[in-house]
Input
Amino acid sequence: MSLTLDQTNVSSKQKDINRFPKAKAIFNICAIVILMLVFNLYPDRIGIWQFTGDEISFYPLLNSVFLATWLPWFNIWWILALSLNIAHLSLGHWTLATRVLDIVVIVLGLNIILSLLFGSPMNAINPGLATADLGWTQVMREMSPMFTWIIPFILAIIAIAVGVDLIRKVIWLVRSVIR
Output
């Protein structure tokens, strides 16, 4: 009798481990759709808005070279992540296929981040931004030498976090296959 009870406990623990919260899937789907809409339909609206009195000034942040080079890769990444979250929403739990797809999505994202890190991330910034009169031009001039290491530093932190998540997901995949 205790053997049956133990198997029930193990079975319920496995169900809890493999469960994927629907609220998390819905949040992820909404976030990805918003990112895709903003970057694909309104890339010229991503920038710095300055409100001075009755006047509104806008300076685009991303340049066309960055968008032409990286936006297709971001779209592939987002479409895969969107597919994965739709699968989670419909299934409600992890499967071997969703775990493998999750690892593929993470590897693609890590590849994009590392390519930005070891490529030239500064070419993402609109060159006109440095000469724009934002009311804080002096601050921009003083901070511009720091941009050469701040952006790579932020990308490195993101890459480390994604790498740790990748290792964690691979361990979960191996554990789910062994069980």
